[in-house]
Structure formats: C-alpha cells, structure tokens
Recover the amino acids of this structure.
C-alpha cells in the first residue's frame, strides 16, 4: 500500500523547547543552601525552528552532541510537549491524540528497544500487530516481505536477548514497520554496526521509501548514511537550524574554499610566505619546510594567481589540490557553527 497524503508530513513553526536546569552551589554549605533554594537557568534545547517535510522525503537531521536533535524528535513523536510553537505531524498534534497518532509513525531509537527481551522475535512482531490492530491479511504479506528483505527468517524463533547488536537492529527496524507507518523516525540507526549490516539497512530503507513512499527522518553521526540515503540535510547547532538543503549544495558551498598542497625545491620560511600573501585571502599552513598548504578563501583569487605569486620567488616542485571529504566539511561546520 503506497502512502498518500496531501500537504506536508511534518509542519513545525517556531518550534521551541526550553528546559530548566538547576545549578549546584559548591561545598557543603552550598549543598545545604541548595536544599532550600536552588538556583536555576533556562536552556533553549530547540530554538524557534521552522521545518516542513513533504511526503516521501528522506531527511538527515544532523548536528553535534547536544545540538537538540533528540529533543526535536521527541517533540515530533509526541513524547515531549513543546514550550511554544506550532506543530503538526501526519496532520495531527503529536502529544494530543496519542493513540491515533502513534499508529501513523514508526520509531527506532538506537538505545531503546520496542521488542520484548525474553520472547521470540516472531512473538514480539505478533504482539505489535495486536497493539497496532493490523488485520492479519494485511500483516502477513507485508511482514513476509520485510522478513525476506532484512534476512530475518533464522532469527524469528530466538529470544531478543540472544541476538547480536546488528541482528537486533534489523529486528527493531522490522518492528517499527509492522503497521507500515507513513513516517519513520530513526535515531542513529546504524551506530555500532558492521559494514555489511549498515549497507543492508540502508538498502532496505531506500526500498521502503521507494515502494511505499515512506517518509523518513533520521539522526546520524555517520555521513555514509546521509550520502547513501538523504535527499535533504537539516543541520542543527545549539537549537538553531543552520543549514537546510541538499548534501551536494553543502559540498559545493564549501568547495568555494579550495585547498592546495605545494612542494618547494628548497626550504621556504613561513615569514617569507606571509610577506607575499599579506593582502591576499589565503590561509597558510606548514607541513614541513619543503611543503605548505594554502587555503584559498575567496573564489575571485584563483589558483593561477597563487602560482604566479609563488613562482616569482620560489622554485615550485609539485602541487596538488586537496580533496575535502564530506565528513571533513561537516566536521568544520560543527566546529564553526555555520554553514
Ligand atoms: N530533560 C532534559 N532536561 C534538561 N536539559 C535537557 C534535557 N534533555 C536535553 N537537555 C539539554 O538540551 C540540549 C539538547 O539535547 P539533545 O539531547 O536534544 O541533543 P542531541 O542533539 O540529541 O545530542 P546527542 O547527539 O548527544 O544525542 C542539551 O544541552 C541537553 O543537555
């Protein structure tokens, strides 16, 4: 069954979550004073974010530790109530109409399990079928397909506690799809898994998306997940969205800064290079006295400008453009808090 919905799957406007954090005063006296009157401060874990997700999108929700990703997902899944802002998910307010709402979403939180530890995987699926009130005639072909694609047949009669992490994650994914939800939230779905299981899970998610039109929002620290799956990346920093667009646009923006590695025939001092480039948009880094890296920060300053200036004073032996990996780009952005 292909999911159909007009209008956005997720519509958040000015979505905000504030937490009150209690401060501890130092020393014994401080602890005693805290008993009677604790000082507190407010933290904006998610700060007025606007987010529209359309049916069928696969969105990577990324950001460094503490950026506010889990808090957003908790609001979108109805676990947390926003402090302010408007929120509609699958046409409902997530924290209001819980029972009807959870039937339209699937959730996989890396650390938390929705399977019953001591019973066989098959029984867990069956229990979930009952919880979600999925008719048998719809459940059977749907689950058979999922079991085959995720290669779960051999695991079905084992209790969950006997499964390896990779096996359990595959079962968690299957469990989140028992009711074939139109929206799937995944929090770090491939963390700690070996390469083969990662690839299988990515393939599976793509297939669900293509076959049923399942909309997927995933948080991940694994850029491989984003490269393989996400048509769109939303990046969060200190509760604010700092980038919303495609991964290739992000790469292109960053590629505006080009880096080149230059080897010289003779020793070159950093001061001499600084003197040449004192007025140019070039950042210089020394690898050793025969090799330097130059980061060209302004597109109007070309590589041939750089070479002309260098060759006028030094004998250049070799030069190579430095490729920037997506991972490096994202790390830079995390560190700098900008995109
Ligand atoms: N229940 C809470 N009470 C107080 N502060 C909280 C609570 N939950 C989260 N925070 C704070 O809100 C901010 C955002 O946390 P959140 O867990 O959403 O980040 P995250 O992006 O999911 O991080 P990670 O990648 O580490 O999971 C952090 O500063 C965190 O300390």
């Amino acid at each position: 069954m292909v999911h159909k919905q007009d209008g956005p799957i997720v519509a958040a406007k000015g979505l905000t979550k504030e937490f009150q954090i209690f401060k501890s005063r130092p020393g014994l006296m401080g602890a005693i004073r805290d008993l009677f009157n604790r000082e507190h401060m407010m933290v904006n874990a998610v700060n007025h974010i606007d987010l529209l997700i359309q049916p069928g999108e696969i969105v990577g929700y990324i950001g460094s530790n503490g950026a506010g990703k889990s808090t957003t997902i908790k609001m979108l899944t109805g676990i947390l109530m926003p402090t302010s802002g408007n929120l509609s998910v699958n046409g409902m307010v997530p924290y209001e109409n819980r029972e009807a709402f959870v039937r339209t979403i699937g959730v996989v939180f890396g650390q938390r399990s929705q399977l019953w530890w001591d019973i066989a995987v098959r029984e867990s699926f069956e229990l979930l079928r009952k919880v979600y009130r999925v008719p048998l005639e719809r459940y059977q072909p749907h689950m058979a397909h999922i079991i085959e694609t995720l290669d779960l047949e051999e695991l079905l009669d084992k209790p969950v506690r006997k499964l390896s992490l990779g096996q359990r994650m595959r079962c968690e994914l299957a469990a989140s799809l028992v009711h074939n939800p139109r929206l799937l939230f995944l929090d770090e779905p491939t963390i700690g898994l070996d390469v083969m299981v990662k690839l299988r899970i990515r393939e599976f998610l793509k297939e669900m998306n293509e076959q049923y039109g399942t909309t997927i929002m995933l948080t991940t620290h694994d850029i491989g997940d984003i490269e393989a799956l996400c048509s769109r990346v939303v990046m969060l920093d200190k509760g604010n969205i700092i980038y919303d667009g495609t991964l290739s646009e992000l790469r292109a923006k960053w590629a505006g800064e080009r880096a080149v590695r230059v080897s010289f025939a003779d020793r070159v001092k950093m001061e001499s290079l600084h003197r040449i480039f004192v007025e140019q948009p070039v950042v210089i880094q020394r690898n050793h006295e025969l090799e330097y890296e130059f980061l060209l920060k302004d597109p109007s300053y070309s590589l041939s400008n750089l070479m002309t200036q260098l060759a006028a004073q030094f004998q250049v032996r070799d030069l190579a453009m430095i490729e920037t990996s997506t991972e490096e780009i994202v790390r830079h952005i995390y560190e700098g808090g900008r995109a």
User: Anything to note?
Assistant: Residues 182 and 214 are 5 Å apart (CA to CA). The chain has a mean pLDDT of 87. The pocket of adenosine-5'-triphosphate is lined by residues 19, 21, 43, 45, 63, 65-71 (CB under 6 Å). The longest helix spans residues 195-212.
